Model the fold of this input.
Amino acid sequence: MNNRTKNAIYSLILVAIVAIVWFYRDSQKPKTEKLPYIFISGEAQGTTYNITYSDTENRNFKNQVDSILRKFDLSLSTYIKSSEIVRFNNSDSFQFQSPYFYPVLEKSKEIYNASEGAFDPTVYPLIEAWGFGPEKVDFPDSSRIEEIKKYVGFEYIKFDKRQVKKAKEKVSLDFNAIAQGYSIDVVYDFLQSQGIENMMVELGGELRVKGNNENGDLWAIGIDDPKQEAGQQPKRVAIINLDNEAISTSGNYRKFFMHEGKKYGHSINPKTGYPVQRDIISATVVAPTCMEADAWSTAFMVTGLEKAKEMLNSENHLKAFFIYEDENGELQKFNTENLSKNIMLE
Done:
């Protein structure tokens, strides 16, 4: 055996020894186990839900989530004739039977006052009159709208922790602008009670997150271009990173109807009685809870840009991103200062 062959053999042995030592040392290092992320989905409230979470026990909570959402709808859905809210709307008073009715009334009153009536769950008769309720109706005339406005106003709702009453006949409630967000909070609270530390709970495009995603990053949420044509590839105008927060976007660019060449969106101004015709096209709100984000995104569609900015100065626990039309009809973007570090504009 010549020296060249011996050197080659020695080199291979040395490489093998180094490899063995490296693998041994690596095996002795403490391992950070990557938790499995679980994805569940289903249907609820006339739309879909999607939930992603990590769990050391690899549990699947779909049955529990479906049960929670069914019970929730039996309390606050206006599309279920036997629900608590429908039974209240058809009577003068109602004694709470579920744990869901009172909290949403309490938060509604708070945001009704803070938004100066821009958010008002008693807008339901107007929603029905404009054809955005369970039943389709003819286009309403001005006299009908003025008549309905006589019994729109959250001040006509009286409640305590046991029951809710009407202070005026024909007053009706609709929590569609807050209940969906609240249902997300309810599911979120359930998962948190099970020890879940990393999750995203989404229902109908609204969501609430905790911790990090599977890559160890903050959950990132895309905001759609409101001017995008139906059927086109999704286009984002912004990406928002959420840090243990909730987010909701309201807009009239998907749910509307045309009448005599004019577009009528589903956001109703409780004070005028008519669909909103404001500069804000899309209102995104980031808040500690999804119930708040849901209600405030609706309120800002009603107030318009300048009033929304004024209110945000007082409601500094909120973060907001608006897409609006300027005086020339051009699309513009606005975000609050406290959202700047967590938003990336496209």
Remarks:
- Residues 254 and 265 are 8 Å apart (CA to CA).
- The longest strand covers residues 37-44.
- The chain is about 35% helix and 25% strand.
